[in-house]
Amino acid sequence: MKFHLRARLTAEFVDSTFLVAAVIGSGIMGERLAGGNVALALLANTIATGAALVARIAAFVDVSGAHFNPVVTLADAIEGHFSWLEATAYVVIQVVGGIVGAVMAHAMFGLPAISLSARPRHGSTLVFS
Q1: CA-to-CA distance for 15 and 64, rounded, in angstroms?
Q2: CA distance 43 to 17
């Protein structure tokens, strides 16, 4: 069953929002609870992110395809599964959902709604990843 574009975009927005909130929130939580143990914080973040991703996909794959990621959407458009107009709408809603999710995660942990990372991240490996 193919859902109307509005329902698919709503699902992508909700999913992207809660996935980003889970990723950022679990990173903040892991860092706060790990007592300086970076490996433990990373493990907690990875497990929570994986669980959130599986739950989001299971919940909405039949509605929107559970893309959550503009690159996945663009790949689907290149393969002809989406019109470029639909793909553009998906990408915009995913980006907006991601921003809302980041603000939500910051609010949950009492941080400023919008902030920049204090950790420098640079290098060709980051660009590649």
Answers
A1: 10
A2: 22
State the pLDDT at residue 114: 86
Count Cα atoms within 13 angstroms, Cβ side, for 92. 7
pLDDT value of position 66: 85
For the segment 89-109, the average pLDDT, to the nearest whole number, is 95
pLDDT digits (tens, 9 = 90+) for 7-26: 999 999 999 999 999 999 99
> What pTM was computed for the model?
0.85
- Residue 56: exposed, middle, or buried by beta-carbon count in 10 A (0-12, 13-18, 19+)? buried
Dihedral (CA of 77, 80, 82, 84) sign: positive
The amino acid present at 113, given as its one-letter code, is A
**Cα(83)–Cα(76) distance, rounded to whole angstroms?**
9
